[in-house]
């Protein structure tokens, strides 16, 4: 396979991967319900059960996603204990200048700027759209990176804003929450003798059907969803790196920043907020035991640096 050599090829390739991965969520969800119920009932009843389960679940996901879309950014900033700063304070002028310069280069509105009181090095962006976006930076990343490196990090976060990655991640988190809740409700229904149908001939095996539907949800929630979500997260990180390099025209600065960040990226207040890991520029949690690359929120930093340096 031909190695990607340009920023534009890199962005295009990762965007296509993301589209495919997102499309797999509903396809695999519906397929699992059908296949598991088909084991115990005829195909026509399996199709009927699939529709009765999948349609309400998807509608509930969409409704809850709207709520998340409205309030998700505030929850993320509160989780990080971030506080907004303004340009009136002389101490903040350099930070604002860097953010404004990158926003102009990216062709996006200047986001609000938040500071996280932590001496480690990390950053994330949030917001429903570029018009109401925010960038949060730790005190450590401001102090320990030089101007070009910091601009590279800000450009990476502006890329997430421009690519609507934050909105995508919030929607994925919300969708997962709904399917977990639905699985619990289905199990309770099965335990208390509920049924999907009023047909007397099918009431005897309704508990078995519900159990198979619950198993389909569990496979989706425990195995499929984490793999797909982490794959999407890794692709969006690659795309944000490439877009950030395109904005600053300086991929080596972002590569240098990543080298420094990964030596001290832990943000203590986010140790227990696992859902925040994917939105940060580097994994913000504490030391981890061995984890499969398939379950990692971020690509290997060595590979990110290698790709950035190949774009120079």
Please explain how this structure is put together:
The structure is a single chain. The protein has a 4-stranded mixed β-sheet, with helices on both faces. It has helices at about 5-40, 45-80, 95-105, 140-145, 145-160, 165-190, 200-205, 205-250, 250-260, 300-310; strands spanning about 80-85, 110-115, 125, 135-140. The chain has one domain (about 5-310). Strand 3 and strand 4 (about 135-140) form a beta hairpin. About 40% of the residues are buried. Helix 6 runs antiparallel to helix 8 (about 205-250) and helix 8 runs parallel beside helix 10. The two termini are about 20 Å apart. It is mainly α and about 300 residues long.
Query: Would you identify the regions where 5 or more consecutive residues have pLDDT less than 50?
Result: none
Return the structural class: mainly alpha
From the spread of the alpha carbons, the general shape counts as elongated
The proportion of residues forming helix, as a percent range, comes to: 55-70%
Radius of gyration: 22 Å
Largest β sheet strand count, sense and barrel closure:
4 strands, mixed
First-residue to last-residue Cα separation = 21 Å
Order of helices and strands: HHEHEEEHHHHHHH
Strand order of the largest sheet: 1-2-4-3
Percent of residues in beta strands? 5-15%
Mean pLDDT: 84
Beta-strand segment tally? 4
- The helix count comes to 10
Number of domains: 1
């Amino acid at each position: 396979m031909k190695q990607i050599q340009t920023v534009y090829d890199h962005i295009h390739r990762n965007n296509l991967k993301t589209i495919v991965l997102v499309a797999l969520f509903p396809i695999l969800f519906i397929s699992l319900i059908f296949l598991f119920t088909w084991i115990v009932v005829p195909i026509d009843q399996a199709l009927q059960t699939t529709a009765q389960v999948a349609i309400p679940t998807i509608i509930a996901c969409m409704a809850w996603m709207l709520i998340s879309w409205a309030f998700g950014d505030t929850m993320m900033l509160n989780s990080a204990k971030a506080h907004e700063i303004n340009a009136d304070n002389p101490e903040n002028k350099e930070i604002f200048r860097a953010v404004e310069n990158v926003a102009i280069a990216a062709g996006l509105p200047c986001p609000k700027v938040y500071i996280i009181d932590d001496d480690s090095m990390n950053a994330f962006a949030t917001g429903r759209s570029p018009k109401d976006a925010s960038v949060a930076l730790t005190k450590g990343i401001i102090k320990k990176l030089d101007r070009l490196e910091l601009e590279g990090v800000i450009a990476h976060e502006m890329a997430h804003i421009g690519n609507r990655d934050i909105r995508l991640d919030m929607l994925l988190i919300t969708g997962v929450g709904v399917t977990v809740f639905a699985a619990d409700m289905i199990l309770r229904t099965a335990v208390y003798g509920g049924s999907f149908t009023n047909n007397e001939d099918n009431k005897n095996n309704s508990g078995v059907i519900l159990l198979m539907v619950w198993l389909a949800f569990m496979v989706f929630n425990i195995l499929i969803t984490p793999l797909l979500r982490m794959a999407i997260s890794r692709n969006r990180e690659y795309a944000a790196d490439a877009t950030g390099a395109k904005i600053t025209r300086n991929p080596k600065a972002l590569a240098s920043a990543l080298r420094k960040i990964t030596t001290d990226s832990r943000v203590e207040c986010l140790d227990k907020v696992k859902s925040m890991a994917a939105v940060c520029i580097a994994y913000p949690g504490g030391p981890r035991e061995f984890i499969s690359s398939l379950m990692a929120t971020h690509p290997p930093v060595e590979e990110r640096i290698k790709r950035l340096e190949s774009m120079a």
